[in-house]
Amino acid sequence: MNAPANHAVLNDARILIADDEFVIASDLEFVLQNVGARVQIAGTLADALTLATNEELDAALLDARLGSESSLQVAEALAARQIPFLFFSGQLLPAEVLARFPQARALVKPVDYGKLLDATAQMVRPQ
Amino acid sequence: MTKPSSPPLVALGAAAGATQALRRFFEAMPDEPNAAFVVVVKQEAASDADLVTALAESTKLPVTPVVGETHLSDNHIYVVAPNQDVRLTDNTIGAIAPKEQLSKGAPVDFFFRSLASQRNDGLAIVLTGGGVDGAIGARAIKEAGGIVLVQDPAEAEYPSMPRNAIAMDVADFVKPVGELAAKVFELVGQFPNREIEPFGESDEETLQRILAHVRVRLGHDFSAYKRATIVRRIARRSHLMHQNSLAGYYAFLRENPEEAQALFSDFLISVTTFFRDVAPFEALAKHVIPLLFDEQKHGGSIRVWVPGCATGEEAYSIGILLLEEANRRDFRPEIQVFGSDLDAGALAVAREGRYPASIEADVSEERLRCFFQREGEHYRVSRELREVVLLANHSLLRDPPFSRLNMISCRNLLIYLNRELQQQVCNTFHYALNAGGFLFVGASESADQPNSTFRLVDREAKIYRSVPASGERMPTLPILLGPRRKRERESLVARHVPRVDQANGAALHRQMLEKISPPSMLVDSAHRAVHLSENAGRFLQMSGGPVTSDATDMVRPELRFDLRTALNRAFERGEPSLSMPIFVKFNDSARRIYLQVRPVEDGDAARHALVFFIEGEEVDADAAQATGELASGEPAVETIKRLQEELQLSQGRLYATRADSEAATEESRAANEELQSINEEYRSTAEELETSKEELQSINEELQTVNNELKLKLESISRAHSDLQNLMAATDVGTLFLDTALRIKRFTPHFAQIFNVTGSDEGRPITDFTHQLEYDGLAGDANRVLRDLAPFEYEVKSRSGGWYLIRIRPYRTIEDKIDGVVITFVDITERRRVEEALRESERRLKQEMRLVEMSRMPIFVWDFDDGIVQWNRGSEELYGYSRSEAIGKRIEELRETTVIRDTWENVRETLLRTGSWSGELIQKLKDGRSLVVESQLELKHVENRRLVLESTRDITEQKKWEARRQLLLDELRHRVANTLSVVQSMARQTQRTTHSTEEFVRVFDGRLTSLSIAHNLLLATHWEGAELGALARGQLAAHLQSADHRLRIQGEPVQLPPELATPFALVLHELATNAAKYGALSSEKGFVSLSWSTHKNNDVRYLEIEWRETDGPAVGKPTRRGFGGQLIERSLPGAKVQRMFDENGVVCRIEVQWQEARDERTG
């Protein structure tokens, strides 16, 4: 919860969280807001796609599935706009998905928030 | 006969096996035997050179082959070339040129006979050999006084020759070869003492004693036998018995009763052959036999007696001549030949009528064919001939003779008898013969007798004819020797009485005639007075000296001159004559006597003359005186006259004699010419024979080869025979040979275990025997096989539980003739048992195969290099191909196979290498579907084929389930991770909004319980969704317990998807918690209503839910937006949440897009 020095890059960073579990999404939102990021939450595929296509974003955290649907469409949209993103999911992602998005990292739930913040910071400002 | 300078001679005869036997003989012979040995071999097996070499190796004595004339000396062995005839002359043996060979293949016999004819001290040894050679020769040797030794047939390689020699009853010793040598040495050692000279008085006495001994013991008297023969035979016996003196032998004879018999046998030895001496027998056949038949033209029988016939050859020879004559004529009188002999042993041979084949030398081929039957090495007289000849044991000297005979043939018997006895025997013959009967004697014998009972018919052939007894005197039976003499005489006298009576009338007549006729005298051609008339006595006056029957010596001296002249005239010219008056001075007066001599024609020749004494007038004494005086003047004239007559007579005789002589000279010249031409003929014949000899030699060579071949054949046959014997004994197959009448011919030992037969049952019908089989049709089946000639097989059970295969086949001889049947009995008990077991196992295998065939499990077999072999029902069902479609097709053609992560080729390769493979395959079915199967392949080598057994299992369903399980697992993992994540986040959020640990625990516990209730509902529907009503009641349960009447839940059944169900549960939980804490449920009167409904708008279904609190305390808008509020407002994705804090209570409206999820969704 204490933001390390490098998490400072997240200050004012615009982050999309796409997760159909509101409890999780709001928790992440709190953590990211805590380090100064501006967070938007999408609980459905439609919301996430809208945000990913239209919003100015610095990075995105995608659950692999949204409701009953895959979040690949969102990933496509993000990749098309060259917005970095990472997957966090309750399961290992299929190899073909990972191969499709080589730059995207995949984190497995439950996520260590320190790691998540590190990874998000890495996306916002690559070192 | 024996020359003092001659060494003892030992003749050895042998044939097959000779070399071996001879070697052993000479090996056993001591160094100085002091004898000459002559070896004669009838054989071709070894050439003479071989024999000479072989013998030279086994003895120190010099061995010399006989070539041409060879002089014999001591301690030498002379080997005669095989089959060469040699003849002994003095002390020299000479090979006989082939053209003169007479032995007809019996060289041993020939030499033995030659030896016998030359010497009486020869030793003959008969050794091994096939055939009969040597037997007859040995007999000759023994007859001559020699000694015969024979190899023991049991030891001989070929026992035939020794056996035949022994059968001749001539062997003095029968011993093995080694002992023969010792015996010969011993016998030769006594050689100088052979001759016993019985001339001393004591010896003469001893000789008589010996003969007396034989007579007493055996009833035969040999005292009248010729002394020389008797002495020689006794000397031989005493030599054999090692007695050097006659006295010693006599003592030996008395001590050994059997010796008398042996000596007796020796006395009787005689040599006889068929047609012995050819010419006399020819003469007999030509001149005598026809006469015998002529005499019998009007019926009657021809009776011939052959005394001393020994082994019968002479009797059979005569029989042959008679039968031949009978065959030539068209009538056949009864023919009877009596053969008699003392020697019962010899007679037995004669009765048997079986003679060695060597009689070929004596009997012509035609006669052999007509009167003999060949029996191997022998000839047997034919039945016809045998029936003609009657043989009897009879002593010529002792027993009464046969009588009323037409002929007597007694050859070479008289020579053994002394003169006196010969005379007696001739008398016996004369008695026995009919008047005019013939007597046939041996070449060196004669029947000439003073009383002239026989007349010589043929001087060369020695044939005599019986002369009828003179006058009325009946023939009297001669004196017989021996004990039965008296009785015989009595009976004979009785027999002759009636004949005397018959003659009475004729005698009376003759007496009357004699009384009135002038005195007469019958004179025969020898001038002997045969008969006188009653009153002839006064003209006779015997002269001094020995009494004689000579007529001229009997008459008065005055008559003698005239009588002789007249007789000569009568006999030589056949003229009667009447003499001039002769003055004869009788006692009282002188008378003038005339002699009339008349030749008497008696049969064919004038052999008698009748002399009449005719008495003239009386001359008174004075006149006689005067005449006598006158005679002194007149005598000159009368004498001159008589002398003139005599001279004329002499001249006539001389003339006739000269004429005779000239004729004789002429004849002899002609004969000489004839002889010359004959000589020429002989010479050319000799040349021809020389050629023949060469031919014969080459034929001999060929025969030798053939003989060798035959020997080999024989060996192989005997080997085959012994093989057969062994086969018969060894075979476990019972075999039975039956003839066409089903009589047992032969069987194997095994057969005797099935049928109750023994070896002695051969020849009996098979139907006579009981057996172990449950089968009674053997005879019938065998007969059927004989009829149809088709083999027959039948399996039969034996009473002991075994089984036999009976096989009946016709018995075919090598000439392909059916001669019965062969029946084999093969024990097939074991085979039957195995067959039974096999059938059982086959049946079971079939059952098992059927089970496999019927199995639902696909199992099939395919040939690694070929098509499918088996295809069961499971395969049919799985793949859809019927068995007929599948069998024979290659497995790759039938169904397309994909190997997961490998290739079919590799599978085949693995199969070849390791013999098995198992794994999963994807196979296409007939209907085109693909199946995943688990397949098990096994490669088996079966009889050069590589068969693959494949069993498969359809695992398509299993695969599906596996995939589903994996999916579930993934889902579970995701959900757990998600849930944990949710719990994690919820814990943090709760922690942020609570102020104490107790509060945290209470709030968090409530939220967690709510979550858990929602999860439970979802699990109940396999996470497909949760019914809204149930969800709501679950969340509100805690509150309902206390205030269920203040809570109303109302709405159509709605199935919430999982992603909605969980947040909805939390929302309801927060709403209820808030209501209990601040709202309607916090007071006693408050009331909560939860209701929902659905509606459709633009094909999208919407769910509207309303939470309305009433009658509770007044609520205001919360001051702070806590986590609970956020949950209510934001946690439902895509939902519109409206919360109003009215005076009446909180109202919360939620509208959410909703579609009833039915398809399988996973989260």
What's the quick description here?
With about 130 residues, chain A is an alpha/beta fold.
What does this structure look like?
The complex is a heterodimer of chains A (127) and B (1163). With 127 residues, chain A is of the alpha/beta class. Helices cover 39% and strands 22% of the residues of chain A. Chain A is built from 5 helices and 7 strands; from the N terminus they run E-H-E-H-E-E-E-H-E-H-E-H. Chain A has a 5-stranded parallel sheet with strand order 2-1-3-6-7, with helices on both faces. Chain A has a two-stranded antiparallel ribbon with strand order 4-5. In chain A, helix 2 runs parallel beside helix 3. The longest helix of chain A is centred in the N-terminal third of the chain and has 13 residues. Chain B is of the alpha+beta class. Helix content of chain B is 45%, strand content 23%. Chain B contains 33 helices and 44 strands. Chain B has a 7-stranded parallel sheet, with helices on both faces. Chain B has a 7-stranded mixed sheet with strand order 16-12-11-17-18-20-19. In chain B, strands 21, 22, 23, 24, 25 and 26 form a 6-stranded antiparallel sheet that branches. In chain B, a hairpin with a 2-residue loop joins strand 6 and strand 7. In chain B, helix 3 runs parallel beside helix 4. The chains are: A alpha/beta (127), B alpha+beta (1163). At the A-B interface, helix 1 and strand 4 of A face helix 29, helix 32 and helix 33 of B.
Helix content of chain B: 40-55%
Backbone CA Rg of chain A: 13 Å
Query: Alpha-carbon distance between the termini of chain A?
Result: 22 Å
Main β-sheet of chain B, in a few words?
7 strands, parallel
Major sheet strand order of chain B: 3-5-2-1-8-9-10
Poorly predicted ranges of chain B (pLDDT <50, ≥5 residues)? Answer: 471-475, 481-502, 626-633, 1158-1163
For the record, give the distance between the C-alpha atoms at the N and C termini of chain B, rounded to a whole number: 158 Å
Instruction: Report low-confidence residues of chain A grouped into runs of 5 or more.
Output: none
